Amino acid sequence: MTPETAYRTEEFQVNVGPQHPSTHGVFRMVLTMDGERVVDCEPHIGFLHRSMEKMAENRLYIQFLPMADRIDYLSSIFCTVAHCEAVEQLMEIDVPARAKYLRTIMMELCRIASHSIFFGVFALDLGAVTPFLYGFRERELTMDLLEMTTGQRMTFNYCRFGGVADDLPDSFFPTVEKFVKVFPARLDDYDRILNENEIFVARTKNVGTVEASRAINYGWTGPNLRASGVDFDLRRNRPYEAYGELGYEPVVLQNGDCYDRYRARILEMRSSHELIKKCVEGLPEGPVQAEKISKFPKVPAGEVYVRVASPRGDYGLYLLSEGADKPYRYKLRTPSFNNLSMIREMLLGVYLADIVPIFGSLDVILPDVDR
Amino acid sequence: MVDPGFNDIAAALTDNFGTTVLAVEEGNKIPFVRVEADAVARVARFLRDEPTLAFDFLMYVTAVDYPEEEKLTLLYHYFSYRHEYSLLVKADVPRHGAEVPTISHLYAAADWLEREVYDLFGVKFRDHPNLTRIVTPEGFEGHPLLKDFANDDYVPFPDWKPEK
Question: Measured between CA atoms, how close is A341 to chain B, in angstroms?
Answer without folding.
Answer: 7
